[in-house]
Amino acid sequence: MTYIGLGSNLDNPIQQIRLALHRLTELPDTRLCCHSSLYRSVPLGAMDQPDYINAVAKLETTLSALQLLSELQRLEIQQGRVRTSERWSARTLDLDILLYNQMDSQDPRLTLPHPGLYLRNFVLYPLYECEPDLILPNGQVLQTMIQKRIPQGLEKLLS
Ligand code: ROI
């Protein structure tokens, strides 16, 4: 199983995430199994940017991790993503591979698990909604992590 983190904070982020979820259903050799609710989250990194909308999707795919990454980057560009030199800046769409099966990757194009996975409420809570029984590759039980946290800076939106 593969889990994708979706994020947007520009140009009607709710619509961007809904459209991206739809486009994930159209990827080749891939099935969208389910997705979380949408969440509003305060920006991590530079604070002088709009709040984000975040969600997580669970996919089953026969694409390789790098093939999937290319497909996701194509969708980001299709939805108007402009890569700036500035790190952690606002964006219309961010699609991150959080986990690809239990794979570890240090490829310069793709670090797996995603380095932000263990730290970010806007990833952990929607991931938990998708997969409440998940055990992370480092052996941590997602449910235990959630129980120890405070969902600070995160608001689940009514669908
Ligand atoms: N902050 C939030 N809340 N959500 C994101 O998806 C997100 N993505 C990013 C940075 C700029 C690090 N901050 C974020 O890439």
Walkthrough of the structure:
- With 159 residues, the chain is an alpha+beta fold.
- The chain has a single domain, classed as 2-Layer Sandwich (Alpha-Beta Plaits), CATH 3.30.70.560.
- Helices cover 27% and strands 26% of the residues.
- The relative contact order is 0.22.
- The mean pLDDT is 95.
- Bound molecules: 7,8-dihydro-7,7-dimethyl-6-hydroxypterin.
- The site of 7,8-dihydro-7,7-dimethyl-6-hydroxypterin has 11 residues, from β4.
Could you provide a short overview of the structure?
With 159 residues, the protein is an alpha+beta fold. The chain has helices spanning 13-24, 65-78, 121-130, 142-148; strands at residues 2-8, 30-35, 39-41, 52-61, 94-100, 105-107, 110-112, 154-156.
